[in-house]
Amino acid sequence: MTDNTGEQTAKPPCHRDDAKAVVKRLRDAGHMAYFAGGCVRDLLLGREPADYDIATGAPPQVVRTLFGQTQAVGAKFGVILVRHGRSTIEVATFRTDGSYVDGRRPQDVTFSTAQEDAQRRDFTINGLFLDPLTHNVIDYVDGQSDLAARVIRAIGSADARFAEDHLRLLRAVRFAARFGFQIEPGTGGAIKRHAAQLARISPERIAEELRLMLMPSTRTVAWRLLCQFDLAAVVLRFLPKAPAAVCQPADILERLEPENVPFGLALAAIGLEHLLDLSVPRHSLHYLLEHVHVQTCVRAMRQALKVSNHESDQLGQTLEGLGMLLSATEPSLARLKRFLARPTAPLSRRLLAALPPASPSPVVIHTLQTALAALAETDVAPPPLITGDDLTNAGFQPGPTFKKILDAVYDAQLENRIRDKREAMAMAKDLSAGKP
Predict the structure, then answer these.
(1) Distance between CA atoms of 184 and 167, rounded to whole angstroms?
(2) Which domain holds residue 303?
(3) Could you report the per-residue pLDDT of 267-284, keeping only the tens digit for each?
(4) Cβ-proximal residues to 178 (8 Å cutoff; 6+ apart), any chain
(5) Domain C-terminal end among 103, 121, 145
(6) Model-level pTM?
(7) Gyration radius (Cα) of the chain, Å
(8) For residue 6, what pLDDT band results from cuts at 50, 70 and 90?
(9) Quick one: 15 and 59 in the same domain?
(10) Phi/psi at 186 (nearest 5 deg)?
């Protein structure tokens, strides 16, 4: 389905033949009907659309009469979901928008003509209609020229479009990165002028846009555009530095593998760029990645984006895992095994591989990668030889030393310094007695 900008949000799969059949039924009933918005753009770019939206001159109540299975998901805006064949298709009545007061949606709409409907949309490449029965493109906004020129241009006044819906600021960047288009200078200037208004948009909605921008292989282009147009400083304004410091070079983000990445990893790369000056000595990297600094970064991201608990854990644990590797001293065998046992170890390893050749040195990174690759083929998380119950049964008094003893014994087990429960209990007794 689409929101008031005509852009896609999540909905069930939609098949072209089903959408074409809906258009035909509307036309047979005497109503103008076209494919509209993003699906037309994608078809003209030679891409397969994820879904097909329809714009029509038929009022919502007529649409509901013509089709048996419908749902009024946006009756106020003339939007009806039609279930036809294997698909759920959004059918929206041509309209003009009333005033916007919340920076996101119009207060009311007036049903109108196709030409007027095109004028209220966001960018020229999204303002096109297609007649699927004749294959004619209906273009009231010169969108075909901008598609050919690979340009993102606001329809009409760019300042007016961004003042209406502030989320369009992020959409412009997303489309430019996704398609490899340039943002037309007038539109780009308006983005900068309106950047501060992005703070009015809910963190959850901003996060949705960032997932679409920062997870694909075009993430570096998107990040550089967010910085270029002053949007990154607004989005990540809660990071523990002045907003102007948010836009660090995108070296780490760019050096991640080209395929899609989890959102938590993308945020970890941005957080690391922000927290670290990669020219500092290696021990300072570890210092900055200590738990307090990682959690400061995580809290700032949660406040800015309201990311899910899973994504938040991904972000924090990926950075903490990297800190385990980049300690001031060479990581022990036990530490490397404990690292590999972490669920986010693969993400931390990807982040390690993406560090620029400054600090730590490429030799250090290569040595760590070689050791981790070899250990990954072994059992890095065997069951502990002893547990807290074993200590209690042996007469140890429960207390703060329990964990320290168990950790030390398990480290010895991971390093093959002890091999059975008898040796483990003997070591625990020595540690309890203060013996080295």
Answers:
(1) 18
(2) 262-375
(3) 999 988 877 654 444 445
(4) 212, 216, 218
(5) 145
(6) 0.87
(7) 28
(8) very low
(9) yes
(10) -65, -40
